[in-house]
Hints:
By secondary structure, the protein is α/β, with parallel strands linked by helices. The chain has helices at residues 33-36, 63-76, 92-102, 126-137, 253-264, 289-294, 304-314, 324-328; strands at residues 3-9, 16-18, 25-27, 45-51, 82-86, 103-104, 110-113, 140-141, 144-145, 150-154, 157-160, 165-166, 175-176, 184-186, 190-192, 207-208, 216-220, 238-243, 268-273, 297-298. The chain has 2 domains: 3-208, Rossmann fold, CATH 3.40.50.1170; 216-328, Rossmann fold (3-Layer(aba) Sandwich), CATH 3.40.50.
Amino acid sequence: MKRKVLIIYTGGTIGMEKDYETGSLRAFDFNHIFNKIPEMNLLECEISVHQFSEPLDSSDVGPEEWKQIAKLIEKNYEIFDGFLILHGTDTMAYTASALSFMLNNLKKPVILTGSQLPIGDLRTDAKENLLTSLYYASLYENDEAVVQEVALYFEYKLLRGNRCLKYSAENFDAFISPNYPILGESGVHLKVEESRLFKTNTNDDFFADLHLSDRVFLWRIFPGINLENLPEIPKIKVLILQVFGSGTIFSSQKTEEILQKIKDNGTEIVVISQCISGGISLGKYNNSNIFKKVGAISGEDITAESALAKAMHLIDNTRYKGSFGENFSKNLRGEISEFE
């Protein structure tokens, strides 16, 4: 039985080719992808293509485009066995994180990929990323999808979408998952670490929750920062503070007063680490106790991309019972580690 996969092309380097008259890169009609990569015809899956009316640089992909992708998946969920989203690399981790929270009761693979070089380049990484992503998007065993979450495939590795980040603008191996092991690896054999995969524990029907709020702000703390500017940010429901190490900040009465003022103004404070690897451990050092005093929320080992997407999804979302803090602290889609 051939599995059916829908490719959603949003834009990005993977769909570019060189205009030899101008020397510039331009998007090509992705409906002609089979001419570019005839090997796709050899795959044991039926492939359909939906492309955005205007291919977007990933820096132009945000909440409205996330909703567009989620609605496309919802509309076609019963028709296709898997979904492959082709996306520019710069904001791919944000999109993957957002979709992981928006797609509820997901039991089919949603894979994102892209490339560092255009598909027409001699040394391109686009062909391998695209072909292997299609394998993962159509991988079933005993009539059940092997991957049932939002994942990102790049340079031979399958990563959890809400756990990864782009760390290199030049290497083919551009993405890492610093706080969670890889889900699979492509070599001579296509490997999947099934014990690491996220599976929903409900039999409820799939649906896309399009709720996203823009009343969130990410602020990176740095030595010498004037914290008095923070309470002046208007209309913010959640302030994500990216702090030092495992959760430290300069300890002073003034700092505590400013953070407390922010809380008293009705803004939740989420604390995440500036370190790529590891996470927040409030109380480990004395200079982290200030966050306990003001009732800040620990982001544990979540990435900045995932923290933003999760906050945007949870703010004033009536589908969730309990407070924002209670829900943010839960491991909803495998985005944080659950420590003993």
